[in-house]
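INFO batch 0412 | record 1 of 1 | parsing
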Amino acid sequence: MRTGRTAAAAIGAAMLALAAPASAQDYTARVTRVLKATPLIDGHNDWAEALREREGDARWTLDLTHGLDAKPVPYNTDIARLRKGMVGGQFWSVWVDADLPGPEQVKQTLEQIDLVHQIVARYPTTFALARTAADVRRIHKAGRIASLIGVEGGGQIDGSLAVLRTYHDLGAGYLTLTHVKTIAWADSATDNPRHDGLTPFGESVVRELNRLGMLVDLSHVSEATMVDAIRVSKAPVIFSHSSARALDDHPRDVSDAVLKLLPANGGVVMVNFAPIYISDAYRRWSAEQDAERTRLNAPPYGGLYVGQPDKAAAALAQWQKAHPKPRVTLSDVADHIEHIAMTAGIDHVGIGSDFDGVDNSLPEGLGNVGAYPSLLAELMRRGWSDADIAKLAGGNILRVMAAAEQVAATPAQAPTKTR
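INFO prediction complete | emitting tokens
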């Protein structure tokens, strides 16, 4: 039995512990506990496309387990860092160039899908292909990384719903309605609009995605396209890698007006880490740098040092010295997550890094796939509960996937024959 002095000392120690700030170890333990129960799912990683572009045929045999950060152009992703980051599920992007002719886009998309399949086959103890929310949970419980596929651009179906259905049959889980170019049936955020959103065929694409159980991805599309797709879709939509336009006025980001549509739709915005979509100061600096580069050398006719790349490069270096790029940090990304959570609700935010798709231009503290726990710990320091962290990490996108599966399971019309 304790004496009175011993009991008082114990009570005093407990009160001091409650008053003291949580240690880094406390946050690490909490993050680990959350991510053991709920898979961390990133909505967008361009690793497969980066491997195809940089490695050529070596992509089929390159050791992907570790060391890719030491390449001449460092990768943000390898298996060792995926494990460090406690990644439970990943949508691998199968992007191709939007300027390619339609048939070539289809061919290269199939090659990209095949590459994802081959990566999974080469490392069966690390990866497993997933189609459904239940697949993701089962694979995560088994200690592997659920591998999902996202087709990043509506041009990649070449105006054919049959091609879309083929991608679905090969495991694609979402279609981004456009990439950087406006296409025949949908306006892009970064090109001149032609349709004021979706055309009738664009609406049929959304309906076919619903029928298939594929997610409608609205990253890269114009605001009018966002609004049209949310109106048409019977399933929750996603933004696989977008951030908050209220904090950075880039058209690739999502406005508060659109965020406020998400509670009724059920969708989720998965926050992008690219500095140009996170920091308005960085966005403006980037535009000024592009303008200076053009002013210095814009062949075949324009530029102060046209046709003199060495002089132009030296002059640009002087400009950069006089105009250092603004700092962008992990904390800035956390600000976007919090803004979306406060505007749309905690059920409508997730993570969509864009790793290996932004030329290693990333916020301080978020340079690779091993850094997710640091982001979650920052949100915990800001007062986020474990339950809210679980929703952000993977719970919200799993709910969206399950809802899309339920819509697809509802009796509906036969597949449309429209091209």
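INFO post-check: The longest strand covers residues 87-93.
INFO record closed
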